[in-house]
Amino acid sequence: MRKIYIFDTTLRDGEQSPGVNLNMQEKVEIALQLEKLGVDRIEAGFPAASPGDLAGVSAVARAVKNASIIGLSRSRTQDIDAAREALIGAQDPCLHLFLATSPIHRKHKLRMEKHQVLETAEAAIRYAKKYFDKIEFSPEDAGRTELDFLCEVTEMAIRAGATVVNIPDTVGYMTPYEYGNIFKTLKENVPGIENIQLSAHCHDDLGMATANALAAILNGADQIEGTINGIGERAGNTALEEVALALETRQQFFQAKTSLVLSEIARTSRLVSKLTGMVIPGNKAIVGANAFAHESGIHQDGMLKEKTTYEIISPETIGLKESKLVLGKHSGRHAFREKLVDLGYDLGDEQLNSAFAKFKDLADKKKNVTDEDILALIEEKLIETPEVFALETIQVSYGNQSTPTASVRIKTLDGATLDEAAVGNGSVDAIYKAIDKATQEDVELDDYSIQSVTQGKDALGEVHVVLKQGDYSVQGRGVSTDILEASARAYVDAINRLIEKRKSPARGRDNVTLI
Ligand code: KIV
Ligand code: ZN
Questions:
Q1: Which of ligand 1's atoms lies nearest the C-alpha of 203?
Q2: CB contact at 8 A, 102 and 144
Q3: DSSP track, 251-303
Q4: Per the count of CB atoms within 10 A, which of 5, 227, 319, 415 is most buried?
Q5: What sort of enzyme, by top EC class, is this (predicted)?
Q6: What confidence tens digit (pLDDT) does each residue in 206-248 have?
C-alpha cells in the first residue's frame, strides 16, 4: 500500500473561512488534536500576514512535536523571513511558497509575463533554500494554468530546491478527470519528478474537492491537503476525513492509505466546529449528525438483520461510541469524572470542580444529561480567557405587543457590580444593548448563530457570535438551557476575548488579503 501524506491546512486555509478568527490558544488546541489524529504536516498559518499570525505559527511550532509545521509565504523575501522567525523551535519546519501561474492571475493580478513568474518563483525558492531543507512550492491556480507551462514551472521548482510541488485547484474549477490528468502529465514529462513529492490541494466550489483529491491519488499524488470538516475559503477545501475514510473503506480500489488515527476523527471534527463556530451540516459525509442515522423502515429492518446491508463505515471507526452511561442529577463526582475520561478529557481538580458544578446545575434542569451535553458544557470554556466581565444575572421582559427590555448584572474582575438595562428590537438585541452599556464597549455584532446541542425541549442551546471593533474581530461562545442566557454568555465571552486581544501586542489577523 502506498502511503499518502496528510497535510492539514485547517489553521491556514480553514481559518480563511468567513467569520472564523482563532486566537493563539485555540490554534494550539486544534494543532495538538491534529497531532493526536496523526496528520503528517500542519500548515499553521501565514506568518507575514500579521504579528498575530506569526505568533500563532510560532506557538504551534513550539507545542507540536510529532508533525512537520509549515508556514505559508508569498514569493517575497520579507514573507520568507517572517516564516523563518515563526518556525524557530519547530521540530520539522517546512516553508510553503506560492506564486500564481494561470493566465488570468498573470494578467490581472500579478501583471507578469511567464518568464517573470518563473524568475520570481525561482529566486524565492533559492533564497528560502538557504534556510529551509523542506520547501513546498505551489503554482497558485495551477488548475487553470496551461499544462506545458505548469510542467515548466514544476521543473524549475525542482531544480531550485523544492521538495514538494503542490497543484492547487485554487478556485475549485477542475473535474476529477482533468485534475487527475495534470498529475499524470507531470509524472510522465517533468525531469526529476521522481525526486520530489506531488501534492493535491482542492477547493469545493463545484462540490468536487474530495473526488478531485482522490483522482490525484489515482494518478500518483503523494500528499493530500485539506481541512477538518472541509472548512476554508468560499465553499471550503477537501475534507480530510472524507479522503481518509474513502481510502480506508475502498482500500482494494485505491491501494493507498494514510497514517491517520481514524478513531480521533469525530473528536477532531467536533473541536474544530466548536472553536471555529462553523456548524457541521447534519448530512455532512462522515462527521454529520445523520451520517450514521437510519430513518426509513426498510433500512432499519436491514440494519437489524445485518449491519452491512446499509452501513459501509461503522461509527466506532471514527471514534463515535454508543453512550452506555447516561448521567442525571443523582450522579456523583466519581461517575462524572469516569464519563469525562471516557469522552477523552482528563481534567485537573480545579477544572473538574467547575465542570461538575455546571453539570449539577444542568442536571437540575434536564432529566438525562447526554454525552453531547457534557461536551458542550466543558468545551464552552475549553480555552480560558481572563474574565474581565462575568455575567451574573439577566432579566428579560418580552411581549409580542410591547418593546423588549433587558437588564443585566455583570461582575468585573476587581469585584465591582455593573447593573444596566436597555430596550431593543428583540430580546437578544435588548440584552446586547444592556451589556454594551455595562461594559462600555462599542462593538458591532457581525455574526450570530444558535444551535441545539441535543434534541428535546430541554436541550442545551449553543450560541456563537462574532464581534467587530475597528480592526479587531473576535468570536464568543455560550451554552445554556435558555437561549437568551446562552446569547448573553456568548456576547460577554466575545467582549472578554476582545479585551485580551487589544492587550496583546500580537494582534489577530483580521482583514488580510492574499495577493
Ligand atoms: O488555494 C490555493 O491556491 C492556496 C495556495 C496558497 C496554496 O491555498
Ligand atoms: Zn487553498
A1: 1
A2: yes
A3: HHHH-EE----GGGHHHHHHHHHHHHT-PPPTT-TTTSTTTT---SHHHHHHH
A4: 227
A5: transferase
A6: 999 999 999 999 999 999 999 999 999 999 999 999 999 999 9
Query: Does the Cβ of 140 fall within 6 Å of ligand 1?
Result: yes
Query: How confident is residue 511, by pLDDT bands cut at 50, 70 and 90?
Result: very low
Torsion angles phi and psi, residue 192, rounded to 5: 85, 0
Share of the chain above pLDDT 90, in %: 76
Give the number of C-alpha atoms closer than 13 A to the C-alpha of residue 440, restricted to the C-beta side.
3
Distance in Å, CA 408 to ligand 2 centroid: 43
Cα–Cα distance for residue pair 2/219, rounded to 1 Å: 12
Q: If you take atom 3 of ligand 1, which residue's CA is the nearest one?
A: 170
Beta-sheet pairing, 68-74 with 197-202 = unpaired
Q: Which residues are annotated as a binding site for Mn(2+)?
A: 13, 201, 203, 237
Superfamily of domain 2-276: Aldolase class I (3.20.20.70)
**Does pTM surpass 0.85?**
yes
Beginning with the edge strand found earlier in the chain, give each strand of the sheet holding 461-469 in spatial order.
Answer: 444-452, 461-469, 472-480
Confirm or reject: Cβ of 170 under 6 Å from ligand 1: yes
Q: Is the CB of 204 under 6 A from ligand 1?
A: no
CATH 3.20.20.70 region(s) of the chain?
Answer: 2-276
Q: Tens digit of pLDDT for each residue in 36-86?
A: 999 999 999 999 999 999 999 999 999 999 999 999 999 999 999 999 999
Question: Could you tell me if the CB of 225 is within 6 A of ligand 1?
Answer: no
Report how far apart, in Å, the C-alpha atoms of 108 and of each of 118, 139, 418, 515 are: 17, 16, 54, 11
Cβ of residue 136 lying under 6 Å from some atom of ligand 1? no
